[in-house]
């Protein structure tokens, strides 16, 4: 079980008992069965059936919603993973016949995000034809059109969306907002989740048009149908991503399933032989975390690698694009050696937990609880962990017996037979949310690596704990403190690399990459400012221990223009409503541009067989840039 889930299950107050009863069962979803699922997809003649079997296993506990991330009316009580597509039913028809992509030049774009504006004009063509083949609103009120193979929410297909867009044009529906309310994307009557579908400047509203938006007055986007997944708002609200893997994994499986279905639908409508249409797929996931092993071992990373590593029967190649991350300068990453210690600063008045993950070097022998860390709260003597077996945990208590931190031993096994020890430290909130609750100590804690441990690098990461715009207002980020770390030079300019910092700081900028994006296949997008084409100061760096030396400390695999300039650190992006706009920044805006570019390359018949091949494809002739900036043939209209 995830340490974070275990903590919330056992530590939260009595008013959350309903969540405690089943949250552990949700955590026990066997993610590693997903890799055999992909192997079966390559060999089985019916990919929909194989996906249905795996989705059934993954959704078994999700149906009960033990963590209460779904609204009560979102649950699908008639869940049937073996439902068959019925293309004679209009609700199951993916797109109008004159909106279907070319079977040779089409490329499906998938987007997993919060509140994707699926009836935005950027996703339409002349004649009110939608290019959205399918959208799954995971937390919407269960509607009549919900597919039986989905455990919750509602699914809407392109034919239905086109009909509703036509009703808007005819005056029978009062605009796009009426469609969002009719489909369940916006429901202001709910009390357990923020209505992020109503946000004018939501994250998904910026990301999805960058990935798959085209001029609605032309047929340019016809070859790029969109399959979208709108995550539950409570998943987006939690910047620590405690419960995110399950909705994201199921979202990926949904996109694969519907991409297979769309290919079969194109064959049916065009009277082509079965499996003669195999469109490639590019999936954009503009989300990420700051703490984790960063070695590709997480279930989400293993699944993405398994999907991209070989051919899924009935589909073309599947690629994933993720942001490199925005925390190069966040002081959330450190590297220690035995005998060293580091300050960890916890802000006062923080009602959320703060967490640090410590990961040791790889070794050949079986896990034996070899990793130890010392932990000292402000004003207290240090205490050292003593674990004897994997998955154990201990509690650091103050002189009054109150819990100060929960510490977990989390070793990881790799397919090559090696292991890696990990320890997760979760400090209790420094501000109680209820009278009588214990609270942690704000100030500078000390984390140390005992000097009797084997030599090597011991890597520390502070978990992201930020306020997501539109959601909770109370989170406050912790950070590492190292006197040798310098954020700015004498002229006030940010110091961008560890080499420029000088000295031997324990807090590092290298290997600050998004922890969802350290697998072998996903393309990591970095951001540059459009004026100078220089990498932005916030773009996280890849590891300085890459197997490919060209990638050492690079700002992603490829880069895209995001900020207007150094002095204007934002770009204009789409708002939820057609014609609306917002200002946004970050590598989350670079990733969808790379996804869009890659989809264009795949449409032209190019089939890069590795991440290195994609970089080579993006690199201009004569350039040696290890992280090339993708070139677009024309300026993309912003809204």
TrEMBL record:
<dbReference type="GO" id="GO:0004252">
    <property type="term" value="F:serine-type endopeptidase activity"/>
</dbReference>
<protein>
    <recommendedName>
        <fullName>Subtilase family protein</fullName>
    </recommendedName>
</protein>
<dbReference type="GO" id="GO:0006508">
    <property type="term" value="P:proteolysis"/>
</dbReference>
<dbReference type="InterPro" id="IPR036852">
    <property type="entry name" value="Peptidase_S8/S53_dom_sf"/>
</dbReference>
